[in-house]
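hey so i finally got around to running both of the ones u sent me last week. sorry it took forever, my laptop kept dying halfway thru and i had to restart like 3 times lol. anyway pasting them below in the order u listed, first the sequence line then the structure token line for each. didnt double check formatting much so if smth looks off just lmk and ill redo it

first one:
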Amino acid sequence: MVLEFRPQGIYCPAGDFFIDPWRPVDRALITHGHADHARWGHGAYLATHAAGPVMRHRLGDITLDGIGYGETRRIGGADVSFHPAGHVPGSAQIRVEVGGEVWVVSGDYKTAPDRLSEPFEPVACHSFITECTFGLPVFTWTPEADAAQQINTWWAENAAQGKFSLLGAYSLGKAQRVLSLLDPSIGPILTHGAVENTNAVLRAQGLVLPDTIHVTPDLAAKDHPGALVLAPPSALGSTWARRFRPASTGFASGWMRLRGVRRRRAVDRGFVISDHADWPGLLEAIKSTGAENVYATHGYTDIFARYLNEKGYHAQVVPTEFTGESLDATDEDDAA
């Protein structure tokens, strides 16, 4: 096998490296900067040039090498290349070829284009390791233009009523995606420190985002009437958020597609926005690879693998410590 599943993570014997390992290893190839894929403690890291700054921001002083999309690098007896995954800026699928056999590790991915991430690129392979965070037919995403209209209408109505709009979005990927959809003419945009710090890293790389105001301890909410306040979901019910009253609360997530989840999150509005592939996107991506063997990780793995087997693939479930867009994820988890 080109890749093996070991206790530390996904391993390539020919190159003696791991991909997105969850235990400390000597050499780690990283698909993107979310904390369930890019973990601290490895001896050396390899990631795309675009993913590197966020990884340094989150992990600190690490030994990190960069690689361009489509660039082939020989590591031991393996040829490795990184290809756009469409998940968050800098995210990649990792292609590994050994002796003419090709495997692709998708990391997390999204096939629908957005305004920020490098568009998903299908990569032909014999075996494909796929996420299936939203691997049920019920999960289909709202077109981005419709999601933008929904958020901006909610914000404008709140502002007209003298309310703040408190919107929960994870600090890497989702928050910037939401920012790209906002109409700044409605009012000021305030950001939690976790969001603003990530914004600064991505802006330094050339990402264009609307102007935002960092919520510091001395910021007076009354000076920013009708503002939209963008924060990690865990901050919505915290002391930090209480200065913004009266307020309507919202949450941007693929999980908003399910009835009852908005109630569980105790928010007024849910917006169906995800940086993961929906059901049609997963099937489209797998078909486009031409892979015969599919390994399903994190999500509705059993159901998804069963469906693929019924469609003629050789599919199986591979347990990993990736979390995908978890309902209970912390702000450092991948919940984009």
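and the second one:
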Amino acid sequence: MINLLDYAFIFSVMVIWTLLLYHVILSFLGFRYSLISEREKERFDLTPLNESSLPKVTILIPAHNESAVIERTLIAMGNLNYPKEKLEILCLNDNSTDNTESIARRTAEKIGKHIKVVNVPRERGKRGKSSVLNYGLEIATGEVIAVYDADNTPESNSLLYLVRNLLEGRGKIGAVIGKFRTRNRERNLLTHFINLETIFYQWTTQAGRWHLYKLATLPGTNFVIWKSLLNELNGWDTKALTEDTELSLRIYLKNLLIKMVPYAITWEEEPERLSVWFKQRTRWAQGNLYVLRKYFFPLLFSGNFMLFFDLLYLIIVYFLFLSSIVISLFIFLTGIMGLWRVNVEGPFNLLWFMAIILFILELGITLTSEPGENRLGNLLLGLLMYFTYTQLWILVVINALWQSIKSILKREGLSWYKTERAG
């Protein structure tokens, strides 16, 4: 006789497979978009550049206790292939208690006057990235704003590719995002997993979505946006821990697009310790939960069904998909211990095996789009990743939900956690 657990099991299988198939589609479309992007990059490279038509760009680099990475970042900024007279780089020292300021000033002096180290006022600082970016926006003189995290080393043409796409889409495109890669991916098993995760995310959730229905999300680094648009939107939301996702929705509500440009590449440092990773990912999850609370009903009644569907995707991932994994895992363990078995007949062992194959297939397709990553070793790592790293996201979301509920009950704002750098 079918009972409640049986229905829960059937529901979890349906949710898991729906999302897996959706990601297979996105993986394939991401691969298609990689081919389109290669031709687009070639077109830009072959088209003569009229430097006089380029807008002035202000790069904002929020930096709080970034002494381990800030020198390398500023050197990379100095090597950007963009007219120096049209480039303003603001290293926003956010009340650092280490020697971030002295290292940044020493490095800036070696590179040129277009790099400035600005101390964020004490009353404006230590409130998170959004507050620092808003201060930078107030003093920026560029027509275009670019944002890079303090651990980022963009490739020399990255900014130029972003700006040229922004200019080409003027009136339709409000912002352009690039791709970020893991600089320290060879450090340990965790950084290998993160490398695969970021490749998968960018070629499916970013490139695949853009190719499917012209949606992408600001990643928090390596992107450009019109300053006039930012001013019109009143800058960044200081309550949002994922200020990039929140700002993305407001851009789309202005009927503007965010284009994904995978050939504009920056390299960044990822967490090398599990404790640092867990805190960072919890902050991301809390930030996305805040976005869900803020925009669910406004988008529901806005008439923008594609954007609401994209928000619904977040709900499916954070609630239905992860809860389905928990349910299926619980049923699997109780079945092994002989405490309960599925009363519904079906090829469930085959479905479980096929789910693993689909995951590896999705990963394999995305790795094909990424130069140098399409190798057997990464597929084997992906198999290990399926049973270990991806399961940790369950704990991340549970912790994020708990922290969010506590902050709501206590009527306190969410606390900002700055990711520790290893350098």
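quick thing i noticed on the 2nd:
The CA atoms of residues 280 and 339 lie 37 Å apart.
anyway thats it, ttyl
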